[in-house]
Amino acid sequence: MTASDVHPPLAPAAKLIVDGVSKWFRTPRAEVHVLDNIDLRIAEGEFVCLVGPSGCGKTTLLDIMAGLTKPDEGLVLADERKVEGPGRHRLVMFQEPALFPWLTAFGNVMFGLKRKPGLSNAERRDIADYHLRLVGLDKFRNVFVHELSGGMRQRIALARSLAPDPRVLLMDEPFAALDAITREQLYGDLQDIWRKRRKTIVFVTHDVREAVFLGDRVFLLSPSPGRVREEFNIALPRPRDLHSPEVAAVVQQITLALRGHLPASQDAAA
Amino acid sequence: MKRALVVFAFFAGLLLIWQLAAASGRWSPVLLPPPRAIALYLWESLWDGTLLDAAAVTMKRLLIGYFIGVALGLPLGLLTSTSEHMQDTVGALALGLQTLPSVCWVPLALLWFGQTETAMLFVVVMGTLWSVLLATDTGARNIPPIYARAARTMGSEGVDKWTRVILPASLPYVVSGMKQGWAFAWRSLMAAEIFVTILTGFGLGHLLQYGRELSAMDQVIGVMLVIVFIGLIADKLLFSPWERFLHRRWGTGLK
């Protein structure tokens, strides 16, 4: 059964399609409805942000797109093929760097490359070095993970996700654990890299400003069960300035919308 | 330099106390020979070959048995960490047998294999296997799940995942398990050699036991020192490099 049997051809060049995805977490004591009938259509080269408060199932949704979790209903299509499991075409950058301590910075970047067929080892090394330069850490090539700062680790994790040239990059609050200064540097890096490489990126965050600064489109999710409430096109020109009034205006608009979708008790938290 | 001096002073002090005690004449020289007698014994048996031959026999048994134990324990530990059934069966068996002091295998090994090399090897394998198995199992279970998730998205599955992610990630546990396995193997082999005479090879344990039978205290203490020495060397050669490697990579134990 190919994807086209299940699904008639949709909008052209939809890179990633989430179609009617629902998910429940069942424990012996409770059943939690995490995601309810999620539909997303993400185009080639698009930078999409999923924003919502904690508990809205955005990480679960990202896991489902990655193929790490199976949806209970619905399906995910990547390049018109049903996602059945994780694969190197959809690399994930996690909230923790998830770097391997037994490898150097270079070794970590090489990990995904080594598993990518059709390259010679010399090419793999060149690609890894290129990406270390891209994130500005070529001097730290032979350093072990514990010797790097938190921001450096996330940079290496970014290089590791980009190096095998995935079709889609899935990012799960990758900068949430960093301090504000480091985070802003990484926003800049990510925006630069995205402009150079035109990757399709799905970026999950609870920070509206982050989403507005980075995204072409922002999807607003609300919790229990997780639903896509609204969609915003961010028409601001790039490169953007995190502290510009234009960004702030859109942030305010989305934040207000987000409050509207929350139960009263969570109002303050949003 | 100062540290070396302290070490030297400590051991010189010990020797001096020993020498004084032996020279005081309160105890029979048969029970407490002076340090010189032990040095003499070591010197002579080193040159006539008895000590080196015995050490070689013992080390051969130990190394072969140990590597068999590790070669079985590592994959079995990885298996028990993945499958519930393996955990309930092999895992439970390992946990039970690990509590059994490995000397307790000696009578069984003798009945099964007779007074042979195989019996010795069996005891060493039993000393090693269970602690390596359990340590590997614990190690693999304690890997942060995020490592496995990251590896899967990067296309690491099956054998590659086991050898390139799970095994290196559980290395800190595995190395301490291997160290414990080594200690158990070493102790159980010594016990077996003291209990059992085996005609095919005359190990350090036998040498120790004959020292007792001949009431040759210089031989008893001399062989004990050799056993301690070999234990120290093994620790330095076999495990210190691994531990340094782990500290360097994981950033643990650094000042």
Could you outline the blueprint of secondary structure elements for this entry?
The complex is a heterodimer of chains A (270) and B (255).
Chain A: H1 3-6, E1 14-26, E2 31-43, E3 47-51, H2 58-66, E4 73-78, E5 81-82, E6 90-93, H3 105-114, H4 121-134, H5 150-162, E7 168-172, H6 180-197, E8 200-205, H7 208-214, E9 217-222, E10 227-233, H8 245-260
Parallel strand pairs in A: 3-8, 3-9, 6-7, 7-8
Antiparallel strand pairs in A: 1-2, 1-4, 4-5, 9-10
Helix pairs in contact in A: 3-4, 3-5, 4-5, 7-8
Chain B: H1 2-23, H2 35-47, H3 50-82, H4 84-99, H5 105-113, H6 117-141, H7 145-153, H8 158-169, H9 171-195, H10 204-213, H11 217-250
Helix pairs in contact in B: 2-11, 3-4, 3-6, 3-9, 3-10, 4-6, 5-6, 6-9, 7-8, 9-10, 9-11, 10-11
Task: Give your account of this protein's structure.
The complex is a heterodimer of chains A (about 270) and B (about 260). In chain A, about 35% of the residues lie in helices and about 25% in strands. Chain A has helices at about 5, 60-65, 105-115, 120-135, 150-160, 180-195, 210-215, 245-260, and strands at about 15-25, 30-45, 45-50, 75-80, 80, 90-95, 170, 200-205, 215-220, 225-235. In chain A, the strands form 2 sheets. In chain A, strands 6-7-8-3-9-10 form a 6-stranded mixed sheet, sandwiched between helices. Chain A is globular, with a radius of gyration of 19 Å. Chain B has helices spanning about 1-25, 35-45, 50-80, 85-100, 105-115, 115-140, 145-155, 160-170, 170-195, 205-215, 215-250. Chain B is globular, with a radius of gyration of 22 Å. Chain B has one domain (about 40-250): MetI-like fold. Chain B has about 260 residues and is mainly α. The longest helix of chain B has about 35 residues, at about 215-250. At the A-B interface, strand 6 of A face helix 7, helix 8 and helix 11 of B.
